[in-house]
Design a protein that fits this description.
The radius of gyration is 17 Å and the shape is globular. The protein has about 250 residues and is an alpha+beta fold. Strands 1, 2, 4 and 5 form a four-stranded antiparallel sheet that branches. It has a three-stranded antiparallel sheet with strand order 3-12-11, with no helix packed on it. Helix 1 runs antiparallel to helix 2. The chain is built from four helices and 15 strands. Strand 4 and strand 5 form a beta hairpin. Bound molecules: 2-amino-4-trifluoromethylsulfanyl-butyric acid (MF3) and cobalt (II) ion (CO) (2 copies). The site of one cobalt (II) ion has 6 residues, from strand 4 and strand 5. It holds the Pfam family Peptidase_M24.
């Protein structure tokens, strides 16, 4: 899973140079699909429940599961979330990252900073003996009580390996000391989706007559941000398997 996660992380590192004003969201898909397959991996989202792409690419008020689109051009100031899974030698990894297109407004930069910190506050609770509610509470308290954002309820983190989605469900909200107790050897994702406004989201159908895929947008049109890591719970603490940054993540490697 570390190797799979390293390949996925390398795709995200590569995307830093690809994502610029003027590209289409389909160019993100092409880069990721090609990078994964040319390094011996399989894009895990392709074929998953009828999904056609290696990546989900959600822009601004789109929350998750959005498809890459040739006619969706990224503009300066947009916020784009790229989520993908990789299978390498039978091992899964799953990571979403948020990217500023050109320069985002200070308001959106703050949403990005808070969402990334929320992910890491959740990871800090992923220690043996804690409970799932400790992870959820840390994220919800920081994003909603301290920052006034909306913390999406309808989509959650999950166990991972041998398939993409395993038990347990990992909600990004909850109460301290409640829920399943975390054990050594569990592999899970934490992937908070944090909205500027309400936490509520709405399903929308893609506008392709040959595709019945549904994705999500915020209910109030506010923008949404997401970061996701795959991690292993070990007796030495949480280990991030999809790290892109050996310096910032040093204590989680
Ligand atoms: N990567 C997503 C997750 O975090 C799953 C996307 S499923 C897809 O769980 F079919 F939309 F790709
Ligand atoms: Co996930
Ligand atoms: Co994901």
């Amino acid at each position: 899973m570390r190797k799979s996660g390293a390949l996925l992380a390398a795709v995200h590192v590569g995307l830093r140079d690809i994502i610029k004003p003027g590209i289409s969201s389909m160019e993100i898909e092409k880069f990721a699909d090609n990078y994964i397959t040319s390094h011996g991996g399989i894009p895990g989202e392709k074929g998953f429940e009828g999904y056609k792409y290696a990546t989900c690419v959600a822009v601004n008020d789109e929350v998750a599961h959005a498809t890459p689109r040739q006619n969706l051009i990224l503009h300066n100031g947009d916020l784009v979330k790229v989520d993908m899974t990789v299978t390498l030698d039978g091992y899964q990894s799953d990571s979403c990252w948020s990217y500023a297109v050109g320069e985002v407004s200070p308001k959106i930069q703050k949403l990005m900073d808070v969402t990334k910190k929320a992910l890491y506050l959740g990871i800090d609770q992923a220690v043996v003996g804690n409970r799932l509610g400790d992870i959820g509470y840390a994220i919800q308290h920081y994003t909603e009580d301290e920052n006034g954002y909306g913390d999406v309820r309808d989509l959650i983190g999950h166990g991972i390996q041998p398939t993409m989605h395993e038990q347990p469900n990992v909600p990004h909200y909850g109460e301290p000391h409640k829920g399943l107790r975390l054990k050594e050897g569990m592999t899970i994702t934490i992937e908070p989706m944090i909205n500027e406004g309400t936490w509520q989201i709405m399903a929308k159908e893609v506008s392709d007559p040959n595709d019945s895929w549904e994705y999500y947008v915020t209910a109030d049109g506010g923008w949404s941000c997401q970061y996701e890591h795959t991690l292993a719970i070990t007796k030495d603490g949480p280990k991030i398997l999809t790290s892109q940054d050996p310096i910032a993540d040093a204590k989680y490697l």
